[in-house]
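pinned: reference chain
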Amino acid sequence: MSDNDHPRTKLNNELQKKYGPSAQDHVQWEVYPQGPPNNLTWHATVYIDDMKHGEASSRTRGGAQDNAAEQAYKHLKNERLSRR
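pinned: its structure tokens
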């Protein structure tokens, strides 16, 4: 997977198109583990302007964040395309 295909990179690029240099001021992540230490499940939620745009779970922290970022990216992209 190239850097441009990485879900968090794609989300960041989409946010840059929408908000410019202040993009990171509009994003908040909530990431936490759940379960016993030998069997953790990571949960990630991404909020954009205090609205939930992506939510996912995975066996790894990065996997949960990537899956939530992919959801948020698709949501933002659809939002942008529907405004045309």
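why pinned: The radius of gyration is 14 Å. Residues 34 and 40 are 6 Å apart (CA to CA).
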